[in-house]
Request: fold
Amino acid sequence: MDNRQFIEMAKKECKISYSPYSKIKVGAALVSENGEIFEGCNIENASYGLSMCAERVVLFKAVSEGQKKFTKIAVASSSQAVPPCGACRQALSEFSPEMEVVWEENGKIISKKLNELLPHSFGLKK
Reply:
């Protein structure tokens, strides 16, 4: 699957986002090392600190299904370019610092390695 198709999967998840406060709908799709694809969206809460980004939703979903190595994540929004925030970068880095991260900005697909977006992550030394 090419990056454009992968981003379209993430965009589809925006439609089921629960984002009544920010009105920013975000979707993500994550590919495990064995090729399994997981999808998720952001989920907000009136207590903002309890809200969860789409990237962490999909990561936790995949890990809860037994996956711990990932090759690629796509992130999309209904309103703007959305590379993963710092918290999501750190959470993703715990499992696969070399994964590819893709998003769309002004109609152009951006692709970066996670460790380029978060060059000095911390965690277990593997």
